[in-house]
Amino acid sequence: MITWRPGLRWLALAVLVGAAGACVPVTVNISFPQEKLDTAAKQIEEGTAQPASAPATPSATAPAAAPPAGTAPPATAPAGTSATASEGRTVDVTPRIDTRSPEVIKATESRRQRRPALREMRSRGCIGESNRGLLEARPGDACGPEVAALIQAENADRHVIYNAFMKDNNIPASDTPRVEAAFAKARQERVRSNEWVQLEDGRWVKKE
After folding, report:
1. Which of 1, 59, 88, 138 has fewest C-beta within 10 Å?
2. Average pLDDT rounded to a whole number, residues 121-132
3. CA-based Rg of the chain, rounded to a whole angstrom?
4. Could you give the count of Cα atoms lying within 13 Å of 24 in the half-sphere of its Cβ?
5. How far apart are CA 131 and CA 121, in angstroms?
6. In the chain, where the domains are located
């Protein structure tokens, strides 16, 4: 049995209060400029465009530099965005994606395997790159029933990439349109001439 003396009881209470105060989380708001999202999406797509069975590429960008000695790292800032802490301190980091996660590896490899078939359907005008970074069917030549299956499978893998990218960077769901726009830009840049792309205003045109 432990007998608490008055002085010790108050000392223990003070220690507990201090410990609780030390554990108060610091709120960090993550905000990426669109150009950084664009750059990260482009690098991710370049990795996906490698030949099938190519070794996994490293994360989209290098990790941020270590903070100066004596300073604490940002509370929840992912490696690489612009994170602003509640006290006003800003840490410059860059969006990234964990290319080693099983989900991303699987999605990336299946996309690589699918690329020749997608290239063929693009050349026939059967599919196009939308302004959301997804595929959509277009009225082309000799477009068979396999087009719908290709679109469904490819878009499912692209959603895996989106979800992993947003999770790894603590990007809120409200920023999904910005992420989609970044990947749409990266993918449309890789489209060849005379293939379908969707403009920001929703119109479909053939790339010049």
Report:
1. 1
2. 96
3. 24
4. 5
5. 18
6. 26-92, 102-203
**Tokens for 188?**
């449309």
Which residue did the predictor score with more confidence, 150 or 77?
Answer: 150
Beta bridge partners of 137: 127
Q: Which one has a higher pLDDT value, 176 or 62?
A: 176
pLDDT averaged over every residue in the chain: 77
Diameter over CA atoms, the chain: 90
Residue with structure tokens 């903070």? 67
What is the Cα–Cα distance from 28 to 5, expressed in whole angstroms? 42
> If pLDDT is split at 50, 70 and 90, which confidence band does 120 have?
very high
DSSP classification of residue 200:
T
- Alpha-carbon separation of residue 120 from 97, 129, 181 (angstroms): 29, 14, 24
For residues 109-125, one letter each, b for 16 or more C-beta atoms within 10 angstroms of the residue's C-beta and e for the rest, the string is: bebbeeeeebeebbebb
CB 134 within 8 A of CB 120: no
- The Cα–Cα gap between 7 and 43 comes to 62
